């Protein structure tokens, strides 16, 4: 039986203070103020089972961790807890070009999976901005999004099946290798986005999709955000669905050094597939009346130059201070109201807030730029942003997860009964509350 | 409290034997041999709550029903049970073109939703063959598929949120109005496909998508299924992803009256979007070397003529006898083996089995054509088809659901632990087992 396996039989187990200290934080900016009691670098599923048996026997909370690139505090771990680090489980077990799928361990870096798929003309469609550093397991735990979601879906839409160790050590396989399938409840979907609170994902079967044969890129500059938002609403009304539609507000452009009539807002659009060029022309025709300037990339190099503006925004803001990246989403039609409200919150609070948005799905990243510590004033300001999203019929978190930071507002979003039901499911799967307690719910 | 509301306060409640008899069957071909004790045509959510309160107080099993078009026996109801018919809850409450979503009651006919969306240049992307008769609630209960799934996803991918009455009468809202969102566990996904066993869906927020600007259609005929399967594998290898890729085997073509060198298999392909024409040319270039004949539709009328072959297959088979429509799925690379095995099962059993398949996602519909009753020999033959799918790494059901008919094989597919976990979730949500007992699990 697994419970007879002592934890010190696990090779990757350590109480080294340096390792423990390095495993107390993620990229949320939240510091638990202490380090976990121990860290286990699992090297096999047996190690995971042993850790959970130990946790059950000693009633020790377990914080599962990938690359620690999360932005909501989901992987933060303090005194009294054990960190289960899965980054050494990093093999791509199978890549089937014929079935357009891959079977991976959770510690695989998302960009590495994408690169392996590219050798077959395929890609892993979800494209979180963190792909170069985050793990597929972490992406699954938070149901990570990215730039291409409106057209290609979020992480959940690319996960066909999971291999999970439950809190009590039972191991289950969910889902299947087929694209479609309705045998049994959707346990796969339940574990995706559960932030390490329902089980430990030790393997995943993910869907791969063809790399589009062609991509076309356009950028537009506006006098103000209202004009840019009107342009994106006009794209929707024209029933266009680009692969990428990214907005930057004046705060982002200011950090990038822009000024003048074209520094009020920026919109980057990409179309893809056999009709990419015809589709981008349709986009141009819709956007042009609202914009000060529209640039259509003639080649790959020009496209990269336009993308650089979007990519450069966060690094430019990071040069101005410590950043807190928020992640609310609203119905697309409420985007202008959301940005106006956030601008007003910034003015009132005296905190610099710059906003970038995935226009196609209404997901906004208001970025609070802070001089010094993330103090109560910062969190109170973030709370106003959360409340704005809820007031507009939106959500606290489009793609980063609830983690520690957004728990306080979760009940307001879900409603009492749905929140209770979530707790009942958690209790059914983890009755002693050992998996990432205090997170997500 | 709801439990004080007596069932006879519900206007749509009846024990009329004619109504009861009409509500004992769905389209699965399975006859429970008796009729339900009563039928309630709910006209409000309050009616649903009253029925569930009555069911709890009297420990009466409740079978929720839409149009009764299910093919797996999920809506079959016999003596001792109460049928909760939701077809009168059939309003489209909201249709937002700006947010590309609709809020609907469960009894809305799927095609009616699609037609309402079309007025705004939008469509409800899942397209079950039953769309003209089935309800959106039934589609959600079975996570229905259709022809466009490989490119546009299944029902689950178009459901943003649900309004659900739980077995104990609590009402919850799951999900959201935004395209993305990761606050809390994915209860929406859990209820989609749960076949009326976890709660009663009384409302849904569904995503709408732009109608493609252009569609192109091609048909190809082959000497045998192996050649057609090789052509579809070549399409995959060429990293093409058509919107529709439908296969018919020789049994289907024979029923349609075909003979000659081109009667071994039929492939219908549709591409859509701005690049539809360029993409269909790429499809033609790949398919042509494998085919006896390839026809590219020059206009809408020619496209309809090619589609008629696919659409006519099931009606042609229905003229030859009583049909049992199966619904297995296999990883795409195993399609040729699956069809070969099914052909062998047909030969051995002496039962005519014709197979149509959604080639893009490996979902096969082997259609057993029966002279007379669905007797033990028929079910035993169907069982061989199920086992074939499982042996090839596939699933019992791609899009129709487990219902009554496939329960026996479910544990073999899911594995003991995953099956146990599903039962634990069911017990947490419906401790007295009153919601569609004996189905799905």
TrEMBL record, chains A, B:
Annotated keywords: FAD, Flavoprotein, Oxidoreductase
InterPro entries associated with the record: FAD-bd_oxidored_4_C, FAD-bd_PCMH, FAD-bd_PCMH-like_sf, FAD-bd_PCMH_sub2, FAD-linked_Oxase-like_C, FAD-linked_OxidoTrans_Type4, Oxid_FAD_bind_N, Vanillyl_alc_oxidase_C-sub2
Top-rank taxon: Bacteria
A molecular function (GO) term: FAD binding
Cofactor(s) of this protein: FAD
PANTHER family named among the record's database cross-references: GLYCOLATE OXIDASE SUBUNIT GLCD
The family this protein is said to belong to: Belongs to the FAD-binding oxidoreductase/transferase type 4 family.
Name of protein: Glycolate oxidase
């Amino acid at each position: 039986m697994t419970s007879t396996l002592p934890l010190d039989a696990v090779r990757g187990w350590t109480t080294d203070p340096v390792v423990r200290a390095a495993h107390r934080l993620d990229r949320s900016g939240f510091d638990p103020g202490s380090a976990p009691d121990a860290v286990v670098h699992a090297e096999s599923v047996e190690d995971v089972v042993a850790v959970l048996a130990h946790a059950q026997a000693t009633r020790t909370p377990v914080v599962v961790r990938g690359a620690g690139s999360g932005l909501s505090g989901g992987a933060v771990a303090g005194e009294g807890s054990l960190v289960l680090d899965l980054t050494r489980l990093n093999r791509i077990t199978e890549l089937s070009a014929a079935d357009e799928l891959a079977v991976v361990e959770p510690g695989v870096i998302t960009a590495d999976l994408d690169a392996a798929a590219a050798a077959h003309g395929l890609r892993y469609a979800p494209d979180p901005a963190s792909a170069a550093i985050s793990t597929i397991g972490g992406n699954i735990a938070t149901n990570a999004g990215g730039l291409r979601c409106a057209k290609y879906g979020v992480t959940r839409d690319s996960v066909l099946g999971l291999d999970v160790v439950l809190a009590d050590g039972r191991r289950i396989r969910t889902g299947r290798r087929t694209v479609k399938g309705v045998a049994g409840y959707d346990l796969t979907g339940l574990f995706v986005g559960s932030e390490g609170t329902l089980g430990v994902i030790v393997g995943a079967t993910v869907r791969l999709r063809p790399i589009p044969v062609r991509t076309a890129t356009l950028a537009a500059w506006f006098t103000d955000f209202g004009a840019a938002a009107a342009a994106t609403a006009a794209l929707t009304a024209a029933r266009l669905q680009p692969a990428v539609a990214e907005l930057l507000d004046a705060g982002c452009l200011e950090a990038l050094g822009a000024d003048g009539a074209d520094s009020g807002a920026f919109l980057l659009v990409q179309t893809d597939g056999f009709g990419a060029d015809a589709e981008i022309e349709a986009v141009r025709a819709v956007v042009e009346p609202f914009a000060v300037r529209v640039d259509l990339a003639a080649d790959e190099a020009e496209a990269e130059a336009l993308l650089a503006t979007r990519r450069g925004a966060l690094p430019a803001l990071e040069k101005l201070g410590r950043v807190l990246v928020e992640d609310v989403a609203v119905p697309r039609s409420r985007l202008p109201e959301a940005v106006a409200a956030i601008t007003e919150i910034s003015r009132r609070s005296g905190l610099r807030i710059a906003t970038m948005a995935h226009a196609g799905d209404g997901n906004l990243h208001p970025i609070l730029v802070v001089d010094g510590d993330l103090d109560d004033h910062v969190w109170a300001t973030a709370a106003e942003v959360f409340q704005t999203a809820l007031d507009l019929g939106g959500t606290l978190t489009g793609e980063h997860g609830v983690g520690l930071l957004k728990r306080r507002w979760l009940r307001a979003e879900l409603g009492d009964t749905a929140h209770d039901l979530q707790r009942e499911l958690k209790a059914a799967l983890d009755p002693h509350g050992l998996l990432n307690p205090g997170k997500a719910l």
